[in-house]
Amino acid sequence: MTRVPTYLLLAGCLFFIGVLSAAQDVLPTPETIEQPPWEVCNETSFVLDIAIAGTAKDQAGAPMTVRGWQNLRPGLCRIVDVEKGTPRFVYARSANLHQGGVREWKGRHEYCVSGEDFTAKTDISCALQDMVAAKFLQVVPTERHTAFTEPEDFGRRAETAGLQRLLGDNNYDIKRIDGRPGKRTRNTLNKFLKDQGLKTNITVAAQYAALQKAAVEARKTVGIKVCNKSSARIWVALAYNSGAGKEARGWWPVAMGRCVQPFAENLKNRDAHYYVRQENAGAADKILQVAADKGGLYCVGASTFASLQHEFCRDRGYIPVRFKPVPADKPGVVINLQDGDFNIAPVSGLRP
Length: 352
Fold this sequence. Notes:
The protein has helices at residues 158-169, 183-195, 204-219, and strands at 2-10, 13-21, 38-42, 48-54, 65-72, 77-80, 88-94, 104-105, 109-113, 118-121, 132-139, 145-149, 223-228, 234-242, 245-254, 259-263, 273-278, 286-288, 296-300, 305-307, 319-325, 332-337, 342-344.
């Protein structure tokens, strides 16, 4: 077996797609060996939504179409019905039930996708189809097996790794995601099942169904959601503990009367802070009021930024500003901001 990885860096995490192929001495032809079906496998710890671009089976000569989404849990494979010997492309994203935002597994070829289930044409622009472009990975038509993977290379351990991740997404105490079915994982899974009123001997498929359903609800209770109840658009920056240290990021615009969730993970041990600017027509922005003895100073940029160092900000082209601490007694908070929460800004020239 040969592994040919395609690497992808997203939000500080490294993912890649490994394409597995079986070496053959003689290429199959219609006269010799029937081409085996193409299967796509999930060897990650994430539940994936998969989109395929290709020619439908038994429709040789027809234009390619793009179809999505096929939900595929860790450890499973799915046969994809495409016409043999024709070009095919694949794209995957993590299902919108995991904490920490969406991860992607992708390539270089752009095709149209939609947020919900869809079928897209390849000869019409995405805008005209009310869709957006995503970058698909091209797969050799004779490939039999395409596997989505992570650097941990879970392989056959993906099923257990997925259970571990979903337990963490439900705010249960999972120390590491390693795909190894140890006592801690089993005890934590049994606790979740009992909390849900389920038997501990249900099938793996039933375990996944329960974990995914609960994770959708749990995701609504974690992270930071900012709601703009003021009279002008606001811009939000966050600072929090990440694996690499204290990270500050911005900016997220929030229109009047709208809410945005810039952070979608459990706030436990994240020491999160926020900084907000309010647009002020014809004058400098107003800024969120923060007591001088509260919060902390972090480096922010004049446009979209991510900063891990918070000393000597100006020497690196940033500006030091005081962030306000996020209440840390819950896994998630909703921050409602009104006009009275802002003062005239002493620092100008920030945000896009």
